[in-house]
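Archive entry. Fields below.
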Amino acid sequence: MNEKFLSNFTEDDREELSIYFDNLNKKIKLSKKETKNFIEDFEKAILYYSKSMKVEDILELLSLDNLGDIYFKKPTNWYPLDNSAKIYPLSMKENWMSLYRLSYYLTEDVVPEILQIALLFTMKRFPTFATSIRRGFFWNYIDGIKKRFSIIEDNVIPCSYINISKVGKQSFNVLYYKNRISVEIFHTLADAYGGITFLSTLVTEYFKLLGKDVSYNDIALDVNEEVNPEEIKDEFIDKKVESRNGSLIDSKALSLDGKLSNVSPCQIIHFDLDLKKLKDLAHKNKVTINELMLSFLFIVLSYSISKEGYIKIQVPVNMRKFYKSKTVRNFSLYNNISLKKSEITSLESVIKKVKNQSQEKLSKNKINEVLVYSNKLVHSLRFVPLFIKRPIANFIYGFIGDKASTSVLSNLGVVPLPSESLKNIKAADFVLGTTISNKVLFSLITVNDIVTLTVSKFTNNTAVENGLYNIFKENDLILRIHGSENYENRK
Amino acid sequence: MKIENDYPTIKAKINKFLLARKIILFIFLISIITVVIVNLAVGGKLWMLYVIGGEVIFYFAFLNQPLIDSSLVKRVTVTLFLICAYLYLIDFINDTEWSYFVIGILAFSIILIQLLILFLGINYQKKKLIPLFMTAIISTIYFVLSLFDIVKINWPIYVLGGVSLAALLILFVFYYKSVKIELEKYFSLK
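PREDICTED_STRUCTURE:
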């Protein structure tokens, strides 16, 4: 313990703190530097609380039982990557990896000292996140690590490359900025549902440490509960599905006009929309919100593309809709909704086509075809060494990759947070941060009756967001428009 | 359309390492083209391969950045193996026979360096046993081949055989559990 830290307390309190920190030292077995930082984390948190709480109460709130044994015991867990995750390390390049960001906007500014402790307490609940990516002879895998996980102040371009090259590096970041807590996750660890479960659990623990009322459910887990084996299960492996063989390969799609930006993404724009009005509009057109949004996107994209051909929007599908699963790992597949550009004439006709295709292509049967195909593909490649698989996958992903779609719309839907947490959260956003050739990506998330559509831009062409603005304004849906600067124009 | 900025301002940053690497690789490319043209024009021994080989070693020693699973022991192992190949290349071009001798010395040095790295930080190095294990296995195989006269035998090969067998013994006697787990993960087909 730091003498300067102790000087803030009375003699009696110092004795109590001394015992506490002795016990803390017995709970962690890390490198010297990490141990020092770990202890500093608790010192900072205790100093924060000491402004308004007695030491006795602080130490009860920061009970060391919350740490578990993940900072002491040698990690023995490791996990093969699920079938969906296997492509992500193979397709990595320097300064490029498949990342996404999820954020909650709180009602008050973030207290970083408490968020750091919340993260330390949360990690034991997510053993697949407390891992580092390793290279095997046939496949990559994730290997348990023992380290001090830390938050960082948000001062990077969203979804910037995370350096995971060294053994023991984590593949996610927890960031904070003003009243926003964000997690950026390498897709190998989890899909967006898994990611939002992690973020929701972290934020719930953070609220608990701030003395706010909390409760738990399937999306906001209790960090002190035992890890349910269902939560770390690879759901792809035991799916014996009787289905026709589908395909992951599709023909080339049209690309948005304009050049790909040098900075990736070059801008993030969030449209906060009124859920009730959007629901009413969707209901009026006899479609879901997802189908309505897809229709808007087709219209807007068609105005932003001068060539003829097919506009295709890739739609990830959460397989948990079809199969009961608690996994926080990847369990999503995708399909393309495609329309011929010349056939995009009016909103009504687009809505009809999108609805028909969604019902067909995003159905359990159709997605099962993709599941069967991807399982067969992985199975057939299992004996091929990684040093052969990797450059081929890299080439195919780069050459074909997202050229088979014009864009992506990923919809997380309504996040079913407990009501106590919702009181402390204003809104959320979900950013798809990386692409090889798509010039714009879209994502949707709904919290507290606010539907946030995020446009991740990889081009300076402004036609898309202007088109969306006009549609949303016409239908009186906009609550707020916020986002980042244009990173391409930075000095 | 007015966009309320709620992201921090980010200053433009240049990745100095990537920039330096681009410049060096460009210089390498120019040098390779030059030496190939000159060597082929002048004729004689293929000395251009000395230049190319040296640049390949430099690349793997200093410029190559594996995206996953990068470690000091791996970098040292790969670089030293490339040096062995390079020495064989020089030997082959000059039609001499010293490389078998030198490669043997280098090979057992690789194993000794790997053992040193392992022991210096044993708590953190147990997850990086694979390079040592693979080097020891390959060296043992090479030693056995030399016993059957398939490859030349000399005293460095005897030392290599001894060191590689000792390394395998150390791994299996003192770190059996770690080796077993690491091999299971490394060769997993899932």
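CURATOR_NOTE: Strands of chain B lie at 4-5.
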